[in-house]
Amino acid sequence: MAGRGNAGIIARIAVLLLLIIALAIGGVFWFDYLNVIDAKTVLAPIYRLLPFAPGEGRTGPDPVSGQILDIDNERFAVLIEAYDLRSRELDIRELDINRLHGEIIQMAQEVDERQKALTDQENSFNAMRAEADIKDRNVEQNARNLTNMPPERAVGILAAMDDQDVIDVLRMTEQIARAEGSASIVPYWLSLMDPVRAAEINRKMVSRPPGLY
After folding, report:
1. Distance between CA atoms of 42 and 47, rounded to whole angstroms?
2. What are the distances in angstroms from CA 68 to CA 47, 58, 79, 82, 188?
3. Higher-confidence residue: 6 or 205?
4. What's the chain's Rg over C-alpha atoms?
């Protein structure tokens, strides 16, 4: 009877031990599932006793996950490099635009200055032409007035003028005579003048064509 009782106790103890071991192993796997512990690391001593070795515990990241992480890092690095390159290109374009803008402004200023210079030249030319027209009208009027005077009186007035004014009147008188188809009185006026001055005026008229005075 005593032997049979001892056998029953031993059997219950064995069952309890097996149950404890099963619960412990199940807890290990459950905590492994929850990522609280690494079951392979905890059970490594037991795995070594088995005929097959499933491998040691986790010693590093999953190769596939590591590869994906490396690829993402490379893509991110490429994006950063592309962004930097694009930023540098934009900076260079901005510098070029600023330089071109400065050149355009300078060219516009030069064009304005040239336009102003041309306008000033045109105004000056118009003023000179207007002055020349006034002078021509005055010379023409003087030539007509002198032509209508007695020659002696006309020569006396011419004698009081400067050589250039005399030459202008004589030329205009000849021009009027040609336009009207009449004989010029200029040779007669020169004959009534002082011979020395008449020769000088005639020399200037011959040596300098109209418009050079």
Report:
1. 10
2. 30, 18, 16, 21, 119
3. 205
4. 62
At residue 143, the 3 state secondary structure works out as: helix
* Nearest-angstrom CA–CA distance, 166 and 160: 9
Helix axes 163-180, 195-207, angle to 10 degrees: 70
- The helix (H) or strand (E) run that includes residue 35 is none
Structure confidence at residue 14 as a pLDDT band (50, 70, 90): confident
Quote the distance between the C-alpha of residue 16 and its chain's center. Answer: 91
Alpha-carbon gap, residue 43 to 65, rounded angstroms:
24
Domain ranges of the chain: 2-58, 61-135, 149-207
Structure tokens at 179: 């336009």
What does the block give as tokens for 89? 């290109």
- Can you tell me the distance from the alpha carbon of 14 to that of 18, in angstroms, rounded to the nearest whole number? 6
* C-alpha–C-alpha distance, residues 127 and 82, integer Å: 66
Give all strands (DSSP E) within the chain, no chain letters. Answer: none
Q: So what's the pLDDT on residue 210?
A: 59
What is the DSSP-derived secondary structure letter of residue 20? Answer: H
pLDDT digits (tens, 9 = 90+) for 53-104: 454 444 444 444 455 556 777 877 888 888 888 888 998 988 989 988 888 9
